[in-house]
DNA sequence: CAAGCGGTGGCAACCGATTGCCAGACGGCC
DNA sequence: GGCCGTCTGGCAATCGGTTGCCACCGCTTG
């Protein structure tokens, strides 16, 4: 990363040093007041005299005091914060989910924070561990964790899954089987006799599901399915995927998601193939950009905003009482037909 | 929001509700042992007899006990967490920043969380307040807060600004003056004698800066600048903006950002205007999608990933010592010329 | 039979804050 | 001067768990 010389080095700082951290007590002593006064200075400033407050703040600053959240939420109840973990925050397919979750969280008086685990199960687990103390509950979207580990986490934290089903854990999913059926029927009715599927990450539960559903529906409609991949679910991953599909003389491509599909479109254009005349392309998610790439992409749209909404509701329900309401919610997708899919070449 | 009937209602829950959760005490009582035994059952299983342990686990299970992570880590110091606040998480122009910040945070052993304030100063302030307790420091990107409030916050928290300059507060900015100069020179050299600027949000510091720089450079090069707006910095906002620009018989449009520019491109196409033959369009940020919209967008690209990297480094420096290293970092942008800008119509 | 010993589980003191309640100070008013 | 109300800050309880220390138990050993 070509950084200019003016960029400071990351200080190699062990933030769990043995040095005992500064507590309200320390500040109180330094300022010559009681611990409760220090506490109030931060949480309820108008409750303490301005002169005292300034004095306390000065002492706190001098000592480098910072309140310890964990203990804070020990005495008050909860932090009023929920965390939404996503594999890739820059993947527009999560935007709807994020927005829906945010709205609902905010409506209930909670703050939603997001964390990114870059498709890495390890990072995902680490985030849960790190944030566990700071938030009241988790939303895990497209988790890359194995079932066993999810159950394990479920013992220690409140959380809800999105795009993933695990027995006994509340979650919201989109009906991929049905959506895939819509895609395959669409292509079949356009005369395509074979479909090339470009697979997503191996650890993705959804990726596996989509392929299984596609294979099944295709066979039922006498269309022959082929699977290529896995490919990284990104625009960049599309180039190699497109080349592989061309090598197979594919007439219809179904990409694991829209990012990959857009990457494929670009590569096909580079290689001089016309879409949809020579080849049809369909994606999943209906992301930002799917309607203004060229040609606009046929893709499976899911009510992701509703999913976010529902997932937060579920989570809040968990937090509130132990009444086990409806635990698994299934939402229905629908195919948005645009210009990237057309009749099979003759 | 058309939610299916299977979606649970948001529990109207005051998250300080009376719903006391199950504690070790409860479990202990149910199992007929002491609280400490319950605690040990979970944290140090081999320390308790197997029969007792099973007994306790059964009781815990029956009551639905889940250990409270917050109090558990009451003794841990610092949260090892940084928060990055952005006005709109779905705006791809922040992706580079997010990625850069994440990398650097992770390299230093910190977890980065993101929060969205939807262009709202109130929400931004509220987030700072709510999260203030849960994180070790803040990165404020494109803050919508007035200078005074930023200074105020700076007294209570460690933080770094991005895309914003406030005296005495560390920050990372892109040189908008220089970037704008590049845009204007580009258009001027293509023969454009007037430039229509589509303004961004009024509360945006950057929006104001960009306009000022554009106005200044334009006059210097004898190009006449016009300003329209403000418009919401989104694709949807582009339609009205485009219509207004057409009304002005503009030949060159500079949009506050790429989202707006893409919206403008779409509207121009709808209205039958050819880009760049009839009209040129330039944006800012070089976001995801700017290279595959049609036509591909000429836009000002900034080293946003470096910005994220630098901002986190700055923040970590703040956390570590009070040694005031370099506090303000300026990064240089460069114009990425694509197909949306061309010679002025004759 | 007494001393020794490992294995269990309880008591109570924390962890680092928050908060209800109360007492002293201060000023205004009759 | 006495009474009263408002501010302000301290005491101590509390949040939910963890953990050091000790008592007790049943058994082996000398």
TrEMBL record, chains A, B:
Residues 22-76 form the HTH lacI-type domain. SMART domains: HTH_LACI. PROSITE patterns: HTH_LACI_2. InterPro entries: HTH_LacI (IPR000843), LacI/GalR-like_sensor (IPR046335), Lambda_DNA-bd_dom_sf (IPR010982), Peripla_BP_I (IPR028082). SUPFAM superfamilies: lambda repressor-like DNA-binding domains, Periplasmic binding protein-like I. Gene3D superfamilies: 3.40.50.2300, lambda repressor-like DNA-binding domains (1.10.260.40). Keywords: DNA-binding, Transcription, Transcription regulation. One of its GO terms (molecular function) is DNA binding. This is LacI family DNA-binding transcriptional regulator. It comes from Streptomyces chiangmaiensis.
């Amino acid at each position: 990363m070509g950084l200019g010389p003016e960029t400071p080095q990351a200080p190699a700082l062990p933030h769990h040093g043995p040095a005992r951290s500064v507590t309200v007590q320390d500040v109180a002593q330094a300022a010559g007041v009681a611990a409760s006064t220090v506490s109030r200075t931060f949480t309820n400033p108008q409750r303490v005299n301005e002169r005292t407050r300034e004095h306390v703040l000065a002492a706190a600053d001098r000592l480098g005091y910072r309140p310890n959240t964990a203990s804070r939420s020990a005495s008050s109840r909860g932090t009023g914060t929920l965390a939404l973990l996503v594999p890739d925050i820059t993947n527009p397919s999560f935007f709807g989910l994020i927005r829906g979750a945010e709205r609902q969280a905010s409506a209930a008086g909670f703050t939603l924070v997001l964390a990114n685990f870059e498709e890495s199960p390890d990072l995902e687990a680490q985030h849960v561990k790190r944030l566990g103390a700071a938030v009241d509950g988790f939303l895990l979207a497209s988790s890359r964790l194995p079932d066993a580990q999810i159950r394990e986490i479920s013992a220690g934290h409140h959380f809800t899954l999105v795009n993933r089903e695990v027995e006994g854990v509340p979650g919201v999913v989109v009906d991929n089987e049905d959506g895939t059926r819509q895609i395959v029927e669409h292509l079949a009715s356009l005369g395509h006799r074979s479909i090339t599927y470009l697979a997503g990450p191996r650890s993705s539960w959804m990726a596996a599901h989509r392929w299984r559903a596609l294979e099944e529906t295709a066979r039922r409609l006498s269309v022959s399915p082929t699977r290529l991949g896995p490919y990284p679910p990104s625009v960049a991953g599309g180039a190699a995927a497109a080349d592989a599909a061309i090598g197979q003389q594919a007439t219809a491509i179904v990409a694991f998601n829209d990012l990959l599909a857009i990457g494929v479109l670009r590569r096909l254009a580079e290689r001089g193939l016309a879409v949809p005349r020579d080849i049809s392309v369909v994606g999943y998610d209906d992301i930002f950009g799917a309607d203004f790439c060229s040609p606009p992409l046929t893709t499976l749209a899911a009510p992701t905003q509703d999913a976010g909404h529902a997932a937060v509701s579920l989570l809040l329900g968990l937090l509130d009482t132990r009444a086990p309401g409806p635990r698994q919610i299934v939402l229905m997708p629908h195919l948005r037909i645009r210009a990237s899919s057309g009749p099979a070449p003759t």
